[in-house]
Amino acid sequence: MTVLARLAAHGGLAVLIDPSRTSPDEAEALAARAADEGVAALLVGTSYADEANVGAVARAMKRAAPSVPLLEFPGAASHLVPDVDAVLLLSLVSGRNAQYLIEEHVRAVPFFERHPDVEPISTAYLLIDGGEVTSVEAVSQTRPLPAGKPELVAAHVRAAMLVGMAATYLDAGSGARRPVSPVLIRAARAATRGPLFVGGGVRTADAVRAARDAGADFVVVGTLLERKGAPAVRELALAARA
Ligand code: 1GP
Predict the structure, then answer these.
(1) Which of 181, 190, 234, 238 is the most buried (most CB within 10 A)?
(2) Residue 48 has pLDDT above 80, yes or no
(3) Residues lining ligand 1, judged by CB closer than 6 Å?
(4) Would you call 222 helix, strand, or coil by DSSP?
(5) Is residue 109 over pLDDT 90?
(6) Handedness of CA 69, 70, 73, 78 (dihedral sign)
(7) Where do runs of H (alpha helix) occur along 68-142?
(8) CATH number of the structural domain spanning residue 164
(9) Ligand 1 site-directed mutation target among 174, 198, 227, most atoms within 8 Å of CB
(10) Per-residue confidence (pLDDT) for residue 50, from 0 to 100
(11) How far apart are alpha carbons 156 and 161 in whole angstroms?
């Protein structure tokens, strides 16, 4: 079974670990806890690189949670590592910067030729305004789509499906003030056929539940779990049950 088919069959909570802020030991402990407490997928990635650390963090996560799908969420082709089950091969379709629409993909070709076991999952990546300038916006030099225009989000997702993309990721950006709203998630859900990831600024179990109820397959949580006093992964994973 492909990773894409596994993701399509079973959604829930996805925990994102940022290797620029997390050591391999910390990543191993968090991935083990997440696996014990019901996480559906693990993501590893960052907008800026500590390229040297991505592989070590991915290996630590795989060691800790061998049966949970481990997906790379790469900021650039140079971040790709073979220690994951699949790569969310992101096309930043909310923007018009050719580097993130096709150039990084061309640069990724040698990696996928060297590592045929790593599954590429063509993913429409939409940055949504979350109330402040995020790292993705600054690094990609693209503007997010407005938070109040569900029809525009739906048109971007639909266009991505028409050109053959297999999954969708709506991102308000790491640490966003406002997560993606249920109205936008519903619009994207109606326009997409593959797994729908939603993340950025999700801080409570209620926000996880709201995103799932609106049609997200995976609710991605990163920053929250790096903080002291974060809710238990179990509480978030339960909220993400269908
Ligand atoms: C960012 O969607 C992810 O790209 C997760 O965001 O760090 O705010 O949880 P947070």
Answers:
(1) 181
(2) no
(3) 16, 171, 174-176, 199-202, 220-224
(4) coil
(5) yes
(6) negative
(7) 98, 104-114, 135-140
(8) 3.20.20.390
(9) 174
(10) 66
(11) 9
